[in-house]
Write a structure and sequence with these properties.
- By secondary structure, this protein is α/β, with parallel strands linked by helices.
- It has two domains: about 70 residues, Transcription elongation factor, GreA/GreB, N-terminal domain (Helix Hairpins); about 70 residues, Transcription elongation factor, GreA/GreB, C-terminal domain (Chitinase A, domain 3, Roll), CATH 3.10.50.
- The protein is about 40% helix and about 25% strand.
- The strands form two sheets. The protein has a five-stranded mixed beta sheet with strand order 5-4-3-7-6. Strands 1-2 form a two-stranded parallel ribbon.
- The protein is elongated and about 70 Å long.
Length: about 150
């Protein structure tokens, strides 16, 4: 069976993941290895909280490394789209970057699979679009600004 997994990401996000991966492999795993070594030197490992804690942290770091490596292996670079919208009913303006499959709406990044992104793609500044949120709320937004990364 052919693996068709793709992880859409901007070039910037790819670089951020590569930097995080390098930090985890070089700095964090070295630090944890030292902590495990020091905990082993304390003696009985069965009741050694420092050892257990270090091993647990090592496991989390290794899991994150595998996750990043998998994402990078399946990365598909997409251009980021910046938008500024007016939520018509609330009279609130918000700016977002539509950035592949990454999502962090509290920091202005939304996934290209989000209802808002799907609603605005293909439209232009001045257009009013409607969408339904994942919680079932109907929303009307006016696109104030839209720009695709070059």
């Amino acid at each position: 069976m052919v693996n068709t997994k793709k992880v859409e990401m901007t070039e910037q996000h790819k670089k951020e993941l590569e930097t995080e991966l390098e930090r985890l492999k070089v700095t964090e795993l070295t630090r944890i290895a030292q902590a495990i070594k020091e905990a082993r030197e304390q003696g009985d490992l069965s009741e050694n909280a420092d050892y257990s804690s270090a091993r647990e942290e090592q496991s989390k770091i290794n899991a994150r490394i595998l996750e990043i490596e998998d994402d990078l292996k399946h990365a598909v670079i997409v251009k980021a789209t910046s938008i500024k919208v007016l939520y018509v009913n609330e009279k609130i303006e918000r700016e977002f970057q539509i950035a592949g499959s990454q999502s962090d709406p509290f920091n202005g990044k939304i996934s290209s699979d989000s209802p808002l992104a799907k609603a605005v793609i293909g439209h232009k500044s001045g257009d009013v679009v409607y969408f339904t949120t994942e919680t079932g709320k109907d929303v009307e937004v006016k696109i104030l600004y839209i720009s695709v990364e070059k």
